[in-house]
From TrEMBL:
It comes from Metamycoplasma subdolum. PROSITE patterns: IF3 (PS00938). PANTHER family: TRANSLATION INITIATION FACTOR IF-3 (PTHR10938), TRANSLATION INITIATION FACTOR IF-3, MITOCHONDRIAL (PTHR10938:SF0). The keyword Cytoplasm applies. InterPro entries: T_IF-3_C_sf, T_IF-3_N_sf, Translation_initiation_fac3_CS, Translation_initiation_fac_3, Translation_initiation_fac_3_C, Translation_initiation_fac_3_N. This is Translation initiation factor IF-3. Monomer. IF-3 binds to the 30S ribosomal subunit and shifts the equilibrium between 70S ribosomes and their 50S and 30S subunits in favor of the free subunits, thus enhancing the availability of 30S subunits on which protein synthesis initiation begins. GO terms for molecular function: ribosome binding; translation initiation factor activity.
Length: 220
């Protein structure tokens, strides 16, 4: 690399360029805007190149940089412009986009707001009513909500709190194919036995994978 062509780079902030490149006259290109500036679309004659492992290769002509990327069966991607000097990295662009989407999806899932729902039961609730409550809880759970299942004790029922645990066990059996217990039952203020349940993603996915196709369900 010839001295004086570019100053020595001590720090590179790697942010893949997404803006539409400009042509030699500085005007916006009329070509459709790509997600990133890659390979031949990079509008610079000389580029500071970084290798796939983060190593600094140095200043190359655009053709030299493209040849280098081609030798490695990778792409040349514009990642930054420092003081009007372009910086590109050699990488597997397909894998880069896949990893980026995967990361965005994970971040979106973390940011998702969990809605809390509540189902009220009594120690002597009938089987029909229990099944109705379980169906409602199932709807909440499959929608991604966290459900508090609460057994309320009244009067003399407080001395038979084991009945509340039995009801919670029966209730959970009705939804256990899609749910998991996120917090075991605890007694609150001597009146409420509260248990928390939420969707078990593995169980739900397993059910989806084992569902018969539409033709199979019709017996075709």
């Amino acid at each position: 690399m010839r001295s004086g062509l570019y100053p020595l780079f001590y720090f590179i902030k790697e942010t893949v360029i997404q803006n539409q490149p400009r042509n030699q006259e500085g005007q916006n290109s009329r070509r459709p805007k790509a997600e990133h500036v890659v390979n031949k679309a990079i509008p610079y004659k000389k580029i500071f190149v970084i290798g796939p492992e983060g190593e600094k290769i140095g200043v190359l002509t655009k053709e030299e940089a493209l040849d280098k990327a081609s030798e490695l069966k990778m792409d040349l991607v514009l990642i930054s412009i420092e003081n009007n000097k372009p910086i590109a990295r050699i990488l597997d662009y397909g894998k880069f986009k896949y990893d980026k989407k995967k990361k965005q999806k994970a971040q979106k899932e973390k940011q998702a707001v969990t809605i809390n729902r509540e189902i009220r039961l009594t120690p002597l609730i009938g089987d029909h009513d229990l099944a109705t409550k379980a169906r409602k809880a199932r709807e909440f759970i499959l929608d991604g909500s966290r459900v508090k299942v609460s057994v309320k004790f009244r009067g003399r029922e407080r001395s038979r709190q084991e009945l509340g645990q039995e009801i919670l066990n029966k209730f959970f059996e009705l939804i256990s194919d899609v749910a998991k217990i996120s917090k075991e039952a605890t007694l609150q203020n001597d009146r409420f036995l509260d248990m928390y349940v939420e969707k078990d993603k593995r169980k739900v996915e397993s059910i989806k994978n084992n569902e018969p196709s539409e033709s199979e369900s019709k017996g075709e």
